[in-house]
Amino acid sequence: MDKRIRIRLFASLREALGTAELAHTTAAATLGALRDELIARGGAWAEALGRHRPVRVALNQAMATEEATLPDGAEVAFFPPVTGG
Predict the structure, then answer these.
(1) What pLDDT digit, counting tens, does each position of 37-60 carry?
(2) Quick check: pTM over 0.85?
(3) Residue 52 class from Cβ within 10 Å (0-12 exposed, 13-18 middle, 19+ buried)?
(4) What is the CATH code of the structural domain delimited by 3-79?
(5) Which of 37, 39, 43, 71 keeps 20 to 30 A from 5, CA to CA?
(6) What is the residue extent of each domain of the chain?
């Protein structure tokens, strides 16, 4: 069953993909499956979210692993790891 979710993108991911937020319909069961679905779009999506890149993910404003179950109505945020100094 398809789920309606909201995807938010931050920092360099937002810049690379040209959007900060989008509504998305998906059949993905987990956050990892959602990431793979977005990578499969190809182009900038594959480059920005590709498995060769470290990407953090949050589910409903809480840090999550890619194994987390993706519920209908969720807010999913992708962002690069924070660096500081």
Answers:
(1) 999 999 999 999 999 999 999 999
(2) yes
(3) exposed
(4) 3.10.20.30
(5) 43
(6) 3-79
